[in-house]
Amino acid sequence: MTNTGATTALYDAAVLADVVATVRERLGQDVADAVERCMSDTLARTITPHADGTAFVITGDIPAMWLRDSTTQLAPFLHLAGSDPLLADTLAAVSRRQQASILRDPYANAFNDGPTGAGHRDRTGGPDGPSPWVWERKYEIDSLAYPLQLAYDLWRTTGRTDHLDRIGEVGSSIVGLWRAEQHHETSPYTFERTDCPPSDTLVRDGRGPEVAFTGMTWAGFRPSDDACRYGYNVPGNAFAAVTLGYLAELAGQVLQDDDLAARALALREEIVAGIAAHGTVTAPTGERVYAYEVDGRGGVLLADDANTPSLLALPLFGWCAPDDPLYTATRALVLSPANPYWYTGSAASGIGSPHTPPDHVWPIALAVQGLTATDPAERETLLRQILATDAGTGAVHESFHVDDPGTYTREWFSWANSMLCELALEVAGLRTYRRAER
């Protein structure tokens, strides 16, 4: 399930070589080697083009396509797509595959490269379980938001619209689902898995913890694929609001569908108001901050997870400016012991996840910290730290122990490799496409 390069060219090698040469000139040979290795690996080993004009992207060591990961794995290539038509074709092919997957099952988070029946056969999706196209059916807000982001970003960076043939149908499905999940108690979605940790299933016969209406949209699982504690994931809702703005712009300017644009903007306004009313809380320090999750019934989780969308990543996906006071107060909280998933040790300090063992920091979170930093020195320090904690493997891992980078999870995790490249391009002044605050 990887590209052999024998029949389909995914990119112009000269364009990538120019980027690597510039990184080498500005940041040194070690950074250039890492960027070349990680970008080449993504292109050579994770993407399978198909004759139908779509492309399937595996996460690395798991042979399935996550809608979230397949977007973030391509993030550094957006900066090159405007000057590389072959690369733009590849991104368009992935976007088409994402959209087709959503139309197969908008509640699923990961898919197979065909109706193979591989993956998890959970008690969800009807009496026979998920579609054989579905690897996993953990419903997460970001699984719908990230494909909207990729479709929009490719249009903005290249001007092309040939990947948007089904975006109206996809967008309408997303708006309908997010509206249905504003009232989760009447939603058709449930999820139950047996013989697993509590984080891999939902309580209350698969409905999840009880929630009250807030205007935000509910999710069963976080971007880490772990079950939500309180139902309304705040960074996920912020990301949904941003991408609803993208959908409205595509609907109005490309599709000339004023009705879809209006529905997207109306839902966006309700989610934004819900975040303001329920997703911002007073921290123990007395400062107003964003919560990570709430339930509309008084339940609040002050935390952050390494997986994005995260609170730390709010400026990265266009929710706010990096110097916004509410964000900076939240940033200070999540980059401190007040965040139960923040760890510090002799090799690193940063945000981890309950998805991995305690005292494990995620390089993705270190990269996000650098990409949202306002101090150039902090960005470069974090870039060098990621490079120094690869345990000599030449790859960026899912997580590593804060005192021993040789203890790590996932040998091959393409998303982490791509986030290293994003940060390196930022420090080198080559990250040309930026999302404006919406």
Write a brief caption for the model.
The chain is mainly alpha-helical and 438 residues long. 43% of the residues lie in helices and 10% in strands.
Task: Write the SSE topology.
Elements: H1 13-27, H2 29-45, E1 47-49, E2 55-57, E3 65-66, H3 67-72, H4 78-81, H5 85-104, E4 110-111, E5 134-136, H6 142-158, H7 167-180, H8 203-206, E6 232-233, H9 234-255, H10 258-279, E7 280-282, E8 288-290, E9 293-294, E10 300-301, H11 325-334, E11 342-344, E12 349-351, E13 360-361, H12 363-371, H13 376-388, E14 399-401, E15 404-409, H14 414-427
Antiparallel strand pairs: 1-2, 3-4, 4-5, 6-9, 7-8, 9-10, 11-12, 13-14, 14-15
Helix pairs in contact: 1-2, 2-14, 5-6, 5-7, 6-9, 7-9, 7-10, 9-10, 12-13, 12-14, 13-14
Report the mean per-residue pLDDT as an integer: 95
Beta fraction: 5-15%
Structurally, the number of domains stands at 2
Structural class, from secondary structure content? Answer: mainly alpha
The CATH architecture of the largest domain can be named as Alpha/alpha barrel
Q: Which CATH C-level class of the largest domain is it?
A: Mainly Alpha
Helix/strand order, N-terminal first:
HHEEEHHHEEHHHEHHEEEEHEEEHHEEH
Fraction in helix: 40-55%
N→C terminal distance = 37 Å
Output the radius of gyration: 20 Å
- Put simply, the count of helices is 14
Basic shape: globular
Q: Describe the sheet with the most strands.
A: 3 strands, antiparallel
Protein name: Glycoside hydrolase family 125 protein
Region (Disordered): 107-131
Pfam families: Glyco_hydro_125
